[in-house]
Write a structure and sequence with these properties.
Elements: H1 3-14, E1 18-22, E2 36-40, E3 54-57, H2 61-67, E4 81-84, H3 90-101, E5 109-113, H4 139-146, E6 151-155, E7 162-166, H5 174-177, H6 179-186, H7 196-200, H8 207-211, H9 215-222, H10 230-238, H11 240-253
Parallel strand pairs: 1-2, 1-4, 2-3, 4-5
Antiparallel strand pairs: 5-7, 6-7
This protein binds S-adenosylmethionine.
S-adenosylmethionine is lined by residues 22-25, 28-29, 40-44, 60-61, 85-87, 92, 259-260.
């Protein structure tokens, strides 16, 4: 199953109230949304008809999250569903995930693209192929080790797989705090060593099995029980100073533009 067909089915099952997408390009995945939506991309050129109320931001995801300050993407309402498909380098994806999680609740689902490259060439950090996943495949290992509390569902979609993450905690800062360790341990120069189970997709569920998991109905019915209360928002605000220095640190690491 193609990743867009899978995401369309997931929208049907989850019926999110809010959808945030990092990496829009021509709007193919954004056009699947039927709820209030946000799209972030420094170079989008939307050609698809968007059928929901959508705010588009022509900026990098780092710039977008930094610009929120003490605010939130959906004015206090949590992100129900997010799709992270921006810069295909591990450190960007970890940062995007950590930023999305700040505005999540327990029932939020995050979809990460490009976790199952088809070759070592496609997984290179220094892009030299037309289709490119970069080293995003390492995100499964990083989340499993730094955030064992999260639930991960790896899905064998075409062309390059999806990772679904649920069980988010907006107050968890483990990824931010361990960022330097993650970079030191997981980022390596090319050629990347892509484990055989990634290339053979042996640990991935078929899209049909992933869609049939009862958890999607369960998450939908739990939605709203943990709304961002004023108290929780101010606790998040209290940690925003840490997040801002995190953003500055990230900006210093940003390599020359490598658009996907
Ligand atoms: C693979 S395309 C997105 C495709 C789209 N999600 C879809 O499936 O139809 C990746 C996009 O990410 C954008 N991008 C690259 N770096 C980014 C960043 N730091 N923040 C946000 N978007 C970024 C690129 O401009 C490009 O349009």
């Amino acid at each position: 199953m193609d990743y867009l067909a899978f995401i369309a089915e997931l929208h049907d099952r989850l019926r999110p109230r809010s959808y945030l997408e990092i990496g829009v390009r021509s709007g193919e995945s954004l056009a699947l949304s039927r709820c209030e939506s946000i799209g972030i991309d420094p170079n989008f050129e939307v050609r698809e008809e968007l059928r929901s109320r959508t705010s588009l931001f022509r900026s990098t995801s780092d710039e977008y999250f930094e610009s929120l300050g003490a605010g939130s993407p959906f004015d206090g309402m949590p992100i129900d569903l997010a799709f992270i498909d921006g810069m295909h380098l591990l450190e960007f994806v970890i940062k995007d995930f950590a930023n999305v999680e700040r505005y999540s609740e327990g029932s939020t689902v995050v979809i990460l693209d490009d976790v199952l490259p088809r070759s070592t060439d496609e997984a290179a950090r220094d892009r030299h192929t037309r289709a490119w996943t970069g080293d995003v495949f390492k995100v499964s290992e990083v989340l499993a080790s730094v955030r064992p509390d999260l639930s991960l569902v790896l899905v064998d979609t075409q062309p390059t797989g999806l990772l679904l993450v649920h069980g988010l905690d907006p107050l968890n800062r483990q990824l931010t705090e361990h960022f330097d360790d993650i970079v030191r341990t997981h980022i390596a120069s090319d050629p990347q060593v892509v484990p055989s189970e990634v290339l053979t997709r042996s640990r991935a569920l078929t899209p049909e099995k992933a869609l049939d998991l009862p958890v999607w109905d369960d998450l939908r019915s739990r939605r709203g029980r943990h709304r961002l209360t004023r108290d929780r928002i101010s606790r998040l605000d209290a940690s925003s100073r840490q997040s801002r220095s995190f953003s500055r640190k990230w900006r210093r690491r940003t390599p020359p533009d490598r658009q996907t």
